[in-house]
Design goal:
The complex is a heterodimer of chains A (about 325) and B (about 120).
Chain A lengths: L16 H20 L10 H14 L4 H9 L1 H22 L16 H5 L9 H25 L20 H23 L7 H19 L1 H7 L2 H26 L20 H25 L26
Helix pairs in contact in A: 2-3, 3-4, 3-11, 4-10, 4-11, 7-8, 8-9, 8-11, 10-11
Chain B lengths: L1 H21 L3 H23 L18 H5 L6 H32 L13
Classes of the chains: A mainly alpha (about 325), B mainly alpha (about 120).
Chain lengths: ~325, ~120
């Protein structure tokens, strides 16, 4: 028993505090010395910024120089950045996917799966096998059906149930607010991209779309969102966005002789298509960023399977490794 | 007075660096990295600022200025604002990958303490 007056201070383990402090102090000195010589608020704009401001309107018919820099002057960098995001999404998918055999050749563990499931794959299933299979499927459907009835619609849940409420959906007030706010946010996201006046176009648009999805997730729970945000659908859409970006840039190379050159007819500034190829790139970026971030967030949220080492067979998963440390 | 922004950015960066160097909890290490990323956003936006300038939008320039006049000094630097957008996207991607790695390490070794993960020592 602790004394009443003594505060409980849990000391967090730290290491090499002196070394860390020294290195941080050295970095601080270098950074401060560098930053003090950086351009101040009265410095003239650098040449590259003036170039962007001067070319945005006459050359690209864009009123938004930041957008011109993102998809025009620095289009190649944005292209690389998009594929860095794609690489990150792929890494997260690989890291978070359920456990599978890590040793041996790929596919070895699934090679004889069908044969093992059936008594004799050559023979049509006999009545006994068919009966067992039907019962099995029926049982599974019933189980899933019961779960769906309870969890699908949080509005129908009985109040005051004995079992602990799962953190799946918020109160009816929040859900109503989300129902009202989400469409407005979604339209805002599309507007940001369609009219091309937002800095960055597809980037903030994609982030807003992710916000819509996360709002819905917070309000209604994973199971209801999973019907719309299916991993396969999201992954296919993301790759379609990447393909759109590649095609947009490559057409510039083929038709105009330079990567990310404008090959679409430009309209007057302030109209929806005024940016030409910039708008197309921006739409690709919206798809890429929105779905990519959604995949990443749901992949990290949905990590369930465990890679804890197990010796032979036996999916012991979470059990049996408490307190164990590798040598 | 924009120097204050620069120095704040340096301070936030150093805070992140110190967290990264001395903490053993891997979630806190990722938080330290996020602090370091955040300091670059502040730095880019501060570097883009010009005294009495407008946002780099060429629609309706103030006081009868033409868009061309804006380009000659009275607008914030659009290139650095673009760098900031780039940094945000890359920061999110990197943080997501690190968090996924941390979740896997935590599941595999049942600890968030980086010192306990001895197999990761080079």
């Amino acid at each position: 028993m602790r004394g009443k007056g003594t505060p409980v201070v849990e000391r967090e383990p730290q290491h090499r505090r002196a070394l860390g402090l020294g290195l941080t102090a050295a970095t601080a000195v270098v950074l401060c010395a560098g930053y003090l010589t950086a351009p101040r608020e009265h410095a003239p704009l650098p040449a590259v910024a003036r170039y962007a401001l001067v070319t945005a309107l006459p050359d690209w018919k864009l009123l938004e120089p930041v957008n011109e820099v993102v998809y025009g002057s620095r289009g190649f960098d944005t292209f690389g950045e998009t594929f860095l995001l794609l690489a990150a999404v792929v890494s997260v998918i690989v890291l978070t996917r359920p456990r599978e055999a890590r040793a041996g050749y790929f596919g070895e563990h699934t090679a004889g799966e069908r044969e093992q499931r059936e008594i004799d794959p050559q023979q049509p299933p006999n009545s006994e096998e068919r009966e067992a299979r039907e019962a099995d499927e029926h049982e599974q459907e019933e189980h899933e059906g019961r779960r769906r009835r309870l969890d699908d619609d949080p509005d129908q849940e009985r109040l005051g149930r004995h079992d602990p409420e799962r953190a799946e959906s918020l109160t009816v007030v929040t859900r109503t607010a989300i129902r009202l706010a989400a469409p407005v946010l979604a339209v805002t996201g599309f507007y940001l991209v369609a009219w091309g006046y937002s800095p960055g176009g597809g980037f903030p648009g994609g982030a807003v779309m992710l916000g819509v999805l996360l709002l819905a997730y917070a309000g209604f729970g994973r199971r209801r969102i999973a019907k719309v945000a299916k991993p396969k659908l999201l992954e296919t859409t993301e790759l379609a966005g990447a393909l759109l970006i590649i095609a947009t840039e490559l057409f510039g190379l083929l038709l105009k002789g330079s990567f990310s050159a404008n090959w679409l007819p430009l309209t007057a500034p302030g109209t929806i298509r005024s940016g030409g190829v910039v708008q197309l790139f921006s739409v690709g970026e919206l798809i890429e960023v929105g779905t990519g971030l959604a995949i990443v967030v749901f992949a990290v949220l949905g990590v369930r399977q465990d890679w804890a080492r197990h010796d032979d067979e036996g999916d012991d998963g979470d059990e049996g490794h408490d307190g164990e440390r590798s040598p | 007075m924009i120097v204050a922004n620069y120095l704040t950015s340096a301070a936030v960066f150093c805070l992140g660096l110190y967290t990264l160097l001395t903490r053993r909890n891997m979630i806190k290490m990722v938080m330290g990295l996020s602090l370091m990323e955040g300091s670059t956003y502040l730095l880019f936006v501060s570097l883009a600022y010009r005294a009495r300038s407008t946002a780099p939008v060429l629609l309706g320039p103030p006081h009868g200025q033409s868009p061309n006049q804006l380009a000659h000094g009275d607008a914030a630097d659009p290139v650095l604002q673009n760098f900031c957008l780039t940094a945000i996207v890359i920061g999110v991607a990197v943080t997501a990958v690190f968090l996924a790695v941390v979740v896997r390490i935590a599941q595999h070794y049942r600890t968030l303490d980086s010192d306990d993960v001895r197999e990761m020592r080079g």
